[in-house]
Amino acid sequence: MAENNYTFPHTIFTEYDKAHNVGVFTETTNHIYTEQTEYQRIDIYETPAFGKLFSLDGVIMTRDSDEFVYHEMISHVPLFIHPNPKKVLIIGGGDGGTVREVLKHDSVEKVVLCELDKKVIEAALKYLPNISYELKNPKVELVYEDGSKFVSQFKDEFDVILIDSTDPTEGEGGLLFTEKFYQNCFEALNENGVFSAQTEEPFLKKEWMVRAYRRISNTFNIARLYMGYVPQYMPGTWTWTFASKNLDPIKDFDPEKVKEFNKELKYYDEEVHVASFSLPVFVKKLISEFSK
Amino acid sequence: MAENNYTFPHTIFTEYDKAHNVGVFTETTNHIYTEQTEYQRIDIYETPAFGKLFSLDGVIMTRDSDEFVYHEMISHVPLFIHPNPKKVLIIGGGDGGTVREVLKHDSVEKVVLCELDKKVIEAALKYLPNISYELKNPKVELVYEDGSKFVSQFKDEFDVILIDSTDPTEGEGGLLFTEKFYQNCFEALNENGVFSAQTEEPFLKKEWMVRAYRRISNTFNIARLYMGYVPQYMPGTWTWTFASKNLDPIKDFDPEKVKEFNKELKYYDEEVHVASFSLPVFVKKLISEFSK
Amino acid sequence: MAENNYTFPHTIFTEYDKAHNVGVFTETTNHIYTEQTEYQRIDIYETPAFGKLFSLDGVIMTRDSDEFVYHEMISHVPLFIHPNPKKVLIIGGGDGGTVREVLKHDSVEKVVLCELDKKVIEAALKYLPNISYELKNPKVELVYEDGSKFVSQFKDEFDVILIDSTDPTEGEGGLLFTEKFYQNCFEALNENGVFSAQTEEPFLKKEWMVRAYRRISNTFNIARLYMGYVPQYMPGTWTWTFASKNLDPIKDFDPEKVKEFNKELKYYDEEVHVASFSLPVFVKKLISEFSK
Amino acid sequence: MAENNYTFPHTIFTEYDKAHNVGVFTETTNHIYTEQTEYQRIDIYETPAFGKLFSLDGVIMTRDSDEFVYHEMISHVPLFIHPNPKKVLIIGGGDGGTVREVLKHDSVEKVVLCELDKKVIEAALKYLPNISYELKNPKVELVYEDGSKFVSQFKDEFDVILIDSTDPTEGEGGLLFTEKFYQNCFEALNENGVFSAQTEEPFLKKEWMVRAYRRISNTFNIARLYMGYVPQYMPGTWTWTFASKNLDPIKDFDPEKVKEFNKELKYYDEEVHVASFSLPVFVKKLISEFSK
């Protein structure tokens, strides 16, 4: 028995950003699931600090304790702008958190979730029930395809498109960060269509944030960056870009709709909606060239 | 020569939160300064990701790359509310970043900085010139004392008091987190006096955030929590509490004063001022019992 | 897909020696088993570098890749000295590695294994088959008791006693490091009885090595420290103390018996037997006061 | 003051073996020296556990607490075999530890140290005085050259050649691990010449150990691997290969010369000399094909 030596946690999850040589770590008490799929390494851990923690290739995707921030912000900001969202396309987001938030809007009749890696959905259903439970809702259609190809077949089809992707990679940033892809999303939206994409953050990944914002901005008539407090993604800040054919995220926002919303939210409300578009000065400068 | 083995950084600064068994780490390329003073262990490192990094007892206090967020937010929110701030007391803040921001307001005639550990100021002056340079401004008076005692001798003296302290500790949280201390700050402020204190954050330290807010709220007529994106403090979010005898941080805020401000700011502007008081739903709930 | 960020292993086992602030770490690809028992935290991991790795309270106990060194050295050194070992008592050693080595001696008719924590044996049987497989040999009797109490009931009973314990703890070092315990072992051995105990190592734990050696030396007529290359135990060196009532580990050693041995060994042979008693000068000095 | 959070050391040196995804770490209290030279990154740290620690490209080269093992074993094993060593060539070894040991032999009249990187010697002289102090001995000639080229100019020149190199690299393992280099060493030795080279270790680097041993064995008439307990080099074991034109490290060894030696040694003595050639069974097997 070596109990007196047991101070530092002996089983650790580490997310290491090799571009900056910085990282975060957290104790894990169980490694619930691990699999090298055709596309990536999936891991799910039990952690004392954050509950279940889900990573792809060693990068945290979601975790019980604070996933609500990201999932509420990618969903409710565009959904409360659309006057009557019925048909929603989510690209990525295989953990199911975005689906769960989208389905809180009673007007929604159909959600198509296009996730490349079927194993992500299977793992989420089995091990992340608090996040994934709406994936089995009959309104949801699951598609296992490359989202960039999938979206290109539609025209004037969706009221809402949400891009819940992993980080961009080398070159064009992966197929979910190209201008071509954003154009296809634009085409797939109908006249009042609204769009939101995760667009990285301005401290460690400002190049990609600016690049993604610029490409979306080049494509849509309206594009606005917004921010949130997202501890699960190092360094604790995240941005999304709202875009649309004609609806403005502030001018066309009706706070009364949020006040009257009949579902519980933990992060988003009518005040947060507006405040999230008030960007720090340095972020405004980073994107000023392309701002609309 | 073992260059082919040189992938993971071999010299690492780690901030470890033993209460949650989580941490952050970053490569250091030089350990510029280290000293065990009467009060604490001071370290200053050169880091590729964040520039100079300054820690006390292994906890990051400030770093070149993003210190501006914390220092602007603790300073400008209260200073833009006061109609004519002349005399400012800062407790803690020995790195000099808060002094630097305060002195951007031309009305300020005198800043008293009360820092317990003289070595912190000496180290900042020597190794953190971008942060500390205004510590030698003739308007600044440096006092090396326990701030909780120092403030208790004043009555109706200051226009602004800023509490730029380290984390609370066991029991009452250290002398800078007690209700008695906040009462002494109240007494030391004159009629239009405004106050701001760092009050931890709502993800990993919510108990202390609520406790500090409650104590300030019990003491001052007006008390309002506000938030910012602060990557240097794990988990990337931070809060401060604005308090005053009679001035309201929203109703008495004049955005024109900020627009006309003649100094450069990187984070704070009139939009950020207002948005920072729009709290996420779960934070509102945490403090709702004591909100004013 | 974040494959380009996947360089440093994201799931890590860390053994941290808080007395010296040093540690070792290794990638784990699966956390096969974890349980907090009445006595300790048991973990078993799959690791690319070392195969299965088994730890108690975060301290490595054994691992597939190099467990043979420790298990051969604690067993064969005393067993080859005894002229005809029939009855063997092992205290600790619940992973089964020492039992496996002892049973390679055909003369052995009975092995009593006294392990405090039944869960250790259950986990080893289930997850460490290469190490534990002889625990089910009919010659083996498993006893789940405190070894220090168990041994005290015997007199002139065993030919061989092996102390395969975890690290000592505060005070007397746990019940398996006291002089009283070693005296009870002495009593439990018959006239030609031989004994071997793990006795820590001379780089990071020299105080305990000397203390254990001194206590054994005070108790037995003959006591000799010996060493081996044991990578699994930081810092890569380990010692055991051979002791007996009258047999000398060098004078009474017959190398021919080892040469004729009919089982395969990976570390121990007649040369290693002798060489392991040739101690570095600084180790000789550390124990010189008590050497026999 | 955050003293209650100060448990895990916040400044850490990590040596990470990316080939195996394993590593060691240790607290550092000061980063005394760091420089990226033309050849490599040099760092020297103060550590509580090991005193001064010196690394090249993040790999520990030497440290105060236990450098004596490596330096005594590379030096005294060959020097006590040579009947009258006068002229010694050391390739690598810029920290000076090997020079220090060699000069303990009064017969030695001249030591040529050939170190590629002058900065290593300068740093050792300035920051590692306990290791480097004999580098300024008038018997020592310092040469800053590629050792593989330098040695090729000599014929029948040296009594002793010691290869105190860093780890091998890709391909041929760097110029100090090729058969051509070992042949040049053979040529540079005179008739009674003896040789010793560091040859890695059999747990994590067995391929290189076997390769180096085979190449030396192909070149010299006599070649014998020997081992030691070397905590500073993960995983705590190290080997060297003794080689010569005609002298045998056991048959030509006179233990009386060691007993009468007039200098203090901490690891090596006549017993250790002999025992270090008694290899574990698995190591004998690894090199059996080439053993002489």
UniProtKB/TrEMBL annotation, chains A, B, C, D:
This is Polyamine aminopropyltransferase. It catalyses: S-adenosyl 3-(methylsulfanyl)propylamine + putrescine = S-methyl-5'-thioadenosine + spermidine + H(+). It comes from Petrotoga halophila DSM 16923. Spermidine binds at residues 71, 95, 164-167. The gene is speE. One of its GO terms (molecular function) is spermidine synthase activity. Residues 10-245 form the PABS domain. Homodimer or homotetramer. The keyword Transferase applies. CDD domains: AdoMet_MTases (cd02440). S-methyl-5'-thioadenosine binds at residues 40, 115, 146-147. Pathway: Amine and polyamine biosynthesis; spermidine biosynthesis; spermidine from putrescine: step 1/1. Signal peptide: none annotated. Catalyzes the irreversible transfer of a propylamine group from the amino donor S-adenosylmethioninamine (decarboxy-AdoMet) to putrescine (1,4-diaminobutane) to yield spermidine. GO terms for biological process: spermidine biosynthetic process. Keywords: Polyamine biosynthesis, Spermidine biosynthesis, Transferase. Belongs to the spermidine/spermine synthase family. The active site is at 164 (proton acceptor).
